[in-house]
From TrEMBL:
<dbReference type="Pfam" id="PF18939">
    <property type="entry name" value="DUF5686"/>
</dbReference>
<protein>
    <submittedName>
        <fullName>DUF5686 family protein</fullName>
    </submittedName>
</protein>
<feature type="signal peptide">
    <location>
        <begin position="1"/>
        <end position="21"/>
    </location>
</feature>
<dbReference type="Pfam" id="PF13715">
    <property type="entry name" value="CarbopepD_reg_2"/>
</dbReference>
<keyword id="KW-0732">Signal</keyword>
<dbReference type="InterPro" id="IPR043741">
    <property type="entry name" value="DUF5686"/>
</dbReference>
<dbReference type="InterPro" id="IPR008969">
    <property type="entry name" value="CarboxyPept-like_regulatory"/>
</dbReference>
Length: 822
């Protein structure tokens, strides 16, 4: 009996092994086709056999099959299209990767008296303050950022034969035809590693960019933008910013007004019950997401979450956007983000056009929360946000980056760096880059000289006829801190030469800019500009003009010296010494009509500016503002001095303006500008406030569009410009306008002004100008934005200041403009 017992036990263990030797193994992993993240607990089954199982928490599964099995493998999961793959002639072990596409699937709807999804959402919201990392006293971590740019929807064979791209055909050797349904070409890769910290009270942010890996680019401001300061997605926040638009988070305080929630299934992982939480938009056309999350029962902490743009979301040029985040435990009560991914497909010309894929991944290590060391770090920081870069941030070797990275590069990513290195070493590619830059920016380099922009070369107007212009400037090859620029223009009708010569000297650029600027110009003034502003002539200015508008021309000779100094914390000053001489040319009062005096003045001015946390993109010589989340305030104080350079006028001038752009999600955004000014002195019209009018049918956001240039003069004035971008607004309620992605807005502009009796008597002897006489000029407008994704139409009504003869006043106008926006 004992022998039989041992024999039975032997057969019990050996038989399965003998049986399995006669079977083949089919194993695989289920992943999201867009984010490449595992789809945990997906249902995997066979259509004919009827047997199946659930993939594990990493999306893995395996089956033992008889050789030659013929069946159809089916994979399904809530929120994804069902995947079907025929299986036949399987004579050996096989491994497959199954990529599920987001979209409509045949989901089972179970009706219940209790809405489990809404119940779970409320439970999550009850823990929101606890789990939102920005409610911690402080936290810090090391972040590794990686941004990859790929292309798809291209015909590689045809492009290889293109005579322009033929020398670079080797880049198509990197095409990936296995990772996704459609082949794509990995093209560009940048990396950064940084230390980041946050403090709740008083709110402060800090980031130090320790290293960036950008082949061929060494720019500090670009390195700063590669950090995580402006790239954090907080799913527990009320809104999530995508393409500079606020989308309603599924954990917004009012998310139940925007989403439907459900709990289709539950799973057990490591002895813990996990709830599958699914959210879908209630109404199409709103800026919402669709997606799901895995939530721990009892604690209601999110383990993983995936978000995709909702159907008919009003975003341009973006076919898909996906966000994935994963959280890990830091202690018994806090889970902290450990990894996030952001993906976007950009399509400019339609569904079948060339598509750019952006993939940003971030991993977080060395996470610390609620630490005194972080408190001590912020004691020395006296502004809300501070981003610093290490010395030589972009000069680390490839071997150094092997130690910096939180994970190793994939085969595709290694190929990108090899390709970029090869391209940068090719003279042919450098020439190609030069031509593309000339077409897109208007400028081209030749040695130490810059030519352009080309769009200034030819223009035309009533006084000059055809205007020809040619510009020259220097580049850093001439001098890294000194920039010299000049242009010469000639009119075929007035037969006069015009031009400018100027020089900038950036004594220091960082941390606080100190710059000198000297300039001499003599040219047609295309718009009476405020101090520091420059008007430009270019070929695109040949727009349709309003009928029956008399265009006015005046020549300006301008000599100036400027000193700009940044003091940090958003404060800057600019000191001006300016000598101007005006010469009226056409349809403006001649010199004798302004009391016989010459139109010459000398002015000193001090401009004070406060732009807290303003961000800039630094160029070789100039910086370009990316705006601030706080209002920007400017005040200018000017003094005119008679007797200096034949100047005939003593006066004082002060002007102030405040501008800001405020997001009022989910109701869009509001931008405004409040301005006021005063001029003390009896002066000719060129030295008073000429309120900006618009003589063409191209909409000007900084002008009064139903007012003409030189229509109104003031020596005291105040005004307000407001523009409210609603977003889809009423257009989301109809299918056609929702699909067209039209957007709604309204504008309001008001101006109050007056002119002293002395200035009125001096300047209006021939009735050229008007004054508001303490009355209010007002325009209101509305319109349709985002027509064909680029056009905007404004309908403007002039509500006040309708002087007689009333038939000469335009009460209504239609204006067009265009802009590229997401």
């Amino acid at each position: 009996m004992r022998i039989h017992k041992y024999l039975f036990l032997l057969l019990f263990f050996v038989y399965p092994l003998m049986a399995s030797a006669q079977l083949v193994t089919l194993s695989g992993m289920v992943q999201d086709a867009f984010t490449k993240e595992p789809v945990n607990f997906a249902s995997v089954s066979f259509a004919l056999a009827g047997n199946g199982k659930v993939a594990d928490s990493a999306g893995n599964f395996s089956f033992y099959l008889k050789p030659g099995t013929v069946d159809t493998l089916m994979v399904s999961y809530v929120g994804y299209q069902t995947f079907k793959e025929p299986i036949s002639m399987l004579n050996g072990d096989a491994q497959i990767i199954i990529s599920l596409q987001r979209g409509t699937s045949n989901e089972v709807v179970i009706k219940s008296k209790i809405n489990k999804g809404l119940f779970l959402w409320r439970k999550i919201m009850s823990k929101k303050k606890l789990y939102n990392r920005y409610n911690q006293t402080n936290f810090a971590y090391e972040a590794y950022n990686k941004l990859e740019i790929d292309f798809k929807n291209f015909k590689a064979d045809k492009l290889k034969k293109n005579f322009i791209l033929k020398p670079f055909s080797f880049i198509f050797d990197n095409i990936d035809s296995t990772s996704e349904k459609e082949p794509f070409l990995p093209f560009f890769l940048v990396e950064s590693i940084s230390d980041y910290a946050f403090q709740k009270n008083t709110k402060k942010y800090f980031e130090n960019i320790k290293a960036t890996n950008i082949k061929g680019i060494n720019n500090e401001s670009i390195s700063k933008m590669l950090g995580v300061m402006n790239q954090n997605v907080n799913v527990y926040g009320n809104y999530i910013n995508v393409m500079d638009k606020d989308f309603v988070s599924p954990f917004n305080d009012r998310a139940d007004d925007f989403y439907n929630f459900s709990v289709p299934d539950t799973q057990i992982l490591n002895g813990k019950k996990i709830l599958h939480f699914v959210f879908r938009p209630k109404h199409p056309g709103q800026n919402t997401f669709e997606g799901d999350a895995m939530v721990f029962a009892g604690t209601y902490q999110i383990q993983k979450i995936g978000l995709n743009l909702g159907k008919d979301a009003n975003v341009n040029f973006v076919d898909r956007v996906g966000i994935f985040q994963e959280f890990i435990p830091i202690n018994d009560s806090v889970y902290f983000i450990s990894r996030d991914k952001f993906f976007a497909d950009f399509k400019i010309l339609g569904k079948q056009s060339l598509t750019m894929i952006g993939r940003k991944t971030t991993s977080y290590k060395n996470i610390i929360i609620n630490s005194d060391s972080i408190t001590n770090l912020f004691k020395a920081q006296n502004i809300e946000e501070l981003v610093t870069t290490a010395k030589g941030v972009n000069n680390f070797s490839d071997s150094s980056w092997q130690n910096f990275r939180h994970d190793s590069l994939s085969t595709n990513e290694k190929a990108i760096y090899a390709t970029v290195d090869k391209l940068n070493s090719m003279p042919t590619f450098k020439k190609f880059q030069k031509r593309i830059k000339f077409l897109t920016t208007g400028y081209t380099n030749d040695g130490n000289v810059v030519f352009g922009p080309w769009f200034n070369w030819v223009s035309a107007n009533q006084y000059e006829g055809t205007r020809l212009r040619f510009d020259l400037g220097t580049n850093p090859g001439f001098h890294k801190k000194i920039y010299i620029h000049t242009y010469l223009a000639y009119g075929t009708k007035d037969k006069q030469f015009k031009g400018q010569a100027e020089a900038y000297w950036n004594i220091t650029k960082t941390p606080n800019r100190f710059r000198l600027h000297a300039s001499y110009s003599k040219d047609i003034d295309n718009g009476i500009s405020q101090i520091g502003e420059v008007s430009q002539d270019n070929v695109f200015s040949l727009a349709i003009r309003k009928p029956n508008i008399t265009r006015k021309f005046i020549r300006l000779q301008d000599v100036r010296f400027e000193i700009l100094k940044d003091f940090g914390k958003g404060f800057s000053t600019e000191l001006f010494f300016i000598h101007k001489q005006y010469d009226p040319l056409l349809n403006l009062p001649a010199l004798k009509t302004v009391n016989g005096t010459t139109l010459i003045n000398f002015e000193t001015a001090l401009k004070l500016r406060f732009a807290y946390l303003e961000q800039y993109l630094e160029g070789d010589y100039f910086r370009y503002s990316l705006g601030s989340k706080y209002p920007i305030i400017e005040a200018t104080f000017s003094k005119g001095m008679a007797g200096v350079g034949n100047s005939a006028y003593n006066y004082h001038r002060v002007s102030v303006n405040i501008k800001d752009n405020i997001k009022i999600s989910p109701y869009g955004s509001v931008s405004y500008k409040i301005f006021a000014g005063k001029v003390d002195g009896t002066l000719p019209y060129v030295f008073l406030e000429n309120h900006p009018g618009n003589d063409i049918y191209y909409y000007n956001g900084n002008a009064f569009n139903l007012m003409t240039r030189f229509e109104y003069l003031s020596d005291r004035y105040a005004g307000l410009n407001v523009e409210h971008h609603v977003g889809a607004g009423l257009f989301r309620f109809t299918n056609i306008t929702r699909k067209l992605k039209w957007r709604q807005f309204w504008t309001g502009k008001a101006l109050w002004g007056s002119l002293s009796n002395d200035n009125l008597k001096l300047n209006n002897t021939v009735g050229t100008f008007k004054t508001l006489n303490n009355k209010t000029y007002m325009e209101l407008g509305t319109g349709i934005d985002n027509i064909f994704k680029v056009f905007r139409v404004d309908f403007i009504w002039r509500l006040t200041a309708n002087e007689r003869p009333i038939q000469k006043v335009s009460h209504f106008g239609v204006f067009g403009s265009f802009q590229l926006q997401f």
